[in-house]
Amino acid sequence: MGDLCQNQRRKFWFAVIWRLCNFCMSVFFSLATYVQINDPDAGLWMVGYGVPAVLAGLVGLNPHVTETLPWRRLSDLHVTLSAAVAAMLAWRLDKERLSEMFHQEEGRAPVGLLRVLTAVGITVFPFVAWLYFHLNQELRANWPTHCKTAI
């Protein structure tokens, strides 16, 4: 009986964390939408960031919304259009034979993304590793006692 209650509590907290992460992503994409106001292609980028903001916000409010047809169609359409835009940019780079790709915005953006992903990975890794070891008790079985009582 105790395992059942603990398992239900764990599922509850995972659901809370999932919703919180979606709300954070919704806020992030909303802010990214807002800062595109001064961009020459503001309409394009605002839609590109606004749609994921709405989709993530809906998942944060009701995680089961992903099972509805409108949500799935909108997310599929957004992924398709994003892939088409990426393919168009790649075709343009190939067609124009740009040798100095980092002088173009399309060349600098992926490098900035890699920098951000690296920083986020370095920041998040200790928390994810701690959570992984905290949830898997069999991994902690052989630890010395001073490690078991530290947290």
TrEMBL record:
PANTHER family: TRANSMEMBRANE PROTEIN 220 (PTHR34262). Pfam families: TMEM220. It comes from Takifugu flavidus. This is Transmembrane protein 220. The chain crosses the membrane at residues 12-37, 43-62, 74-93, 113-133. Signal peptide: none annotated. InterPro entries: TMEM220. The keyword ATP-binding does not apply. The keyword Oxidoreductase does not apply. Keywords: Membrane, Transmembrane, Transmembrane helix.
